[in-house]
Amino acid sequence: MARDEAASPFRLDGRRALITGAGGGIGQALARTFKAAGATVIGADREESLLDNVALDRRAVFDVTDREAAAAAINRLEAAGAAPDIVVSNAGRTRAETLDAVDGAVWERELAINLTGAYNVVSPALAAMARRGGGAIVFIATVNALAHYGNPAYAAAKAGLVAYAKAIAVERGAAGVRANVICPGSVRTPAWDHRLQRAPDILDRVLPHYPLGRLVTPDEVAKAALFLASDGASGITGAVLAVDAGLTAGNLRFVNDVLGRG
Ligand SMILES: NC(=O)c1ccc[n+]([C@@H]2O[C@H](COP(=O)([O-])OP(=O)(O)OC[C@H]3O[C@@H](n4cnc5c(N)ncnc54)[C@H](O)[C@@H]3O)[C@@H](O)[C@H]2O)c1
User: Fold this and answer.
1) Is 154 a catalytic residue?
2) How far apart are the C-alpha atoms of 149 and 155, rounded to whole Å?
3) Predicted pLDDT of residue 5
4) Is 210 noted as a catalytic residue in this protein?
5) Which of 27-31, 193-197, 241-245 has the lowest mean pLDDT?
6) Under a CB-based contact definition with an 8 Å cutoff, are residues 90 and 26 in contact?
7) Catalytic option among 149, 158, 164, 223
8) Under CATH, which number does the domain 3-259 receive?
9) Cα 117 to chain center, whole Å?
10) What does the pLDDT average to over 200-219?
C-alpha cells in the first residue's frame, strides 16, 4: 500500500493549527490532542503566563477583542511562513447567568469576546487560507447556541458563530476552506470556578439533565474538534456538532419526572 493510502485521515502531520484560549481547560486539551495528531500547534491567549504549562510550538499573545492586535498576530505568522492551516476559535467567557444580569454594557462585553473576538481572529486567518488555497476552521460554541440554558448574551454571541461558520462554508467553500461548529454541553474547566465558589453542589444539580449521566470532558471536545479539522471530515462544512452527553437530544428530566420510567 502506498504511504499516503496508509496515513490516517485523522492525522494532522504537516499542518499548523492556531488555537485561541489555549491556556484554558478546553484549550489545553485541544493543544494536547492536536499535537498528538502531528500538528504544529500555535497557542494563543490574552496573557503569556496562561500558556506556561501548555506544550506549544509557538505562542501568540493578544486579546481577541483587540481587532488590530489579532490581525497583527496573524500577519506576523504569515510573514514568518507560519500561517495557520487550521484555526480553532476557542477563546470565550461568560458571567451574566440570566436576563436579570444583562444590561447594555454586559451585552456588549459578552458579544465582544465571544462573537466579535472570534471574527477578529478568523477573518484575517481566513483571508490567508483562501490565498493559500484551503484550510479548516472550527468554532467552539456551546449548547446555549441551540436552545436556552441561561447566559443570554453569551448564547446570542455563540449562536452568531453558527451563522458566521455557515457564511464561511458557503462563501469560501470554493477557496477550499471548511468551517464547522462544536456545541459542548457543560465541561468542568476553570470556567465553572466562579459558579462552584457560589454553589459548591452545582455540578450535582447539573448531572440529572445529562442523558449520559456525566459531563463531557475537555478531551472529548478536543477529539471532536480534531475530527472536524482533519481530512476525516473533508466533506463536512457548515455543520454543527453537539458534544453534550445527550443534553440537546431531548429533555431527560421531563421524561423522568412527567412520564416516569416504568
Ligand atoms: N466549560 C464549559 O462548560 C463550556 C461549555 C460550552 C462551551 N464552552 C466554551 O469553550 C471555550 C473554552 O472554555 P473553557 O471551559 O476551556 O474556559 P476557560 O475559562 O478554562 O478558558 C477560556 C480561555 O479563553 C481565554 N480568553 C478569554 N477571554 C479572552 C480574550 N478576550 N482574549 C483572548 N483570550 C481570552 C482565557 O484566557 C482562557 O484561557 C469557550 O469558548 C467556552 O465558551 C465551555
Assistant:
1) yes
2) 8
3) 61
4) no
5) 193-197
6) yes
7) 158
8) 3.40.50.720
9) 12
10) 95
